[in-house]
């Protein structure tokens, strides 16, 4: 069993969550308000920021749109 790909995936999700959190906080908006803005449950959104959810492209697009950035910018800022 090769755990290396899983470790890379976890690192990517954690890094992406941190990038999203940093962008949201720069907008000075709470998790709850942001989740409402993009039509997502706060608990699910919180798990994204903690790197505990594997986002679909659709979900990543919703988050990026709410942050007024392109999905590619979020991925680029992950430095993975």
Task: Label this structure with key terms.
80 residues, mainly alpha, 434 Repressor (Amino-terminal Domain), 69% helix
Your description of this structure?
This protein is an all-alpha fold. It has a single domain, classed as Orthogonal Bundle (434 Repressor (Amino-terminal Domain)). 69% of the residues lie in helices and 0% in strands. The protein has helices at residues 4-26, 31-37, 42-49, 57-67, 71-76. It starts with a helix and ends with a helix. The mean pLDDT is 93.
State the gist of this model.
With 80 residues, this protein is mostly helical.
* SS-based class: mainly alpha
Q: What is the CATH level 1 assignment?
A: Mainly Alpha
CA radius of gyration is 12 Å
Could you estimate the helical fraction of the residues in percent?
A: 55-70%
State the CATH topology: 434 Repressor (Amino-terminal Domain)
Helix and strand arrangement:
Elements: H1 4-26, H2 31-37, H3 42-49, H4 57-67, H5 71-76
């Amino acid at each position: 069993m090769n755990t290396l790909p899983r470790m890379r995936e976890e690192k990517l999700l954690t890094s992406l969550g941190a990038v999203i959190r940093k962008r949201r906080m720069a907008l000075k908006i709470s998790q709850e308000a942001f989740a409402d803005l993009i039509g997502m449950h706060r608990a699910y959104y919180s798990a994204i920021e903690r790197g505990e959810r594997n986002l679909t492209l659709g979900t990543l697009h919703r988050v990026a749109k709410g942050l007024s950035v392109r999905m590619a910018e979020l991925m680029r800022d992950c430095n993975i």
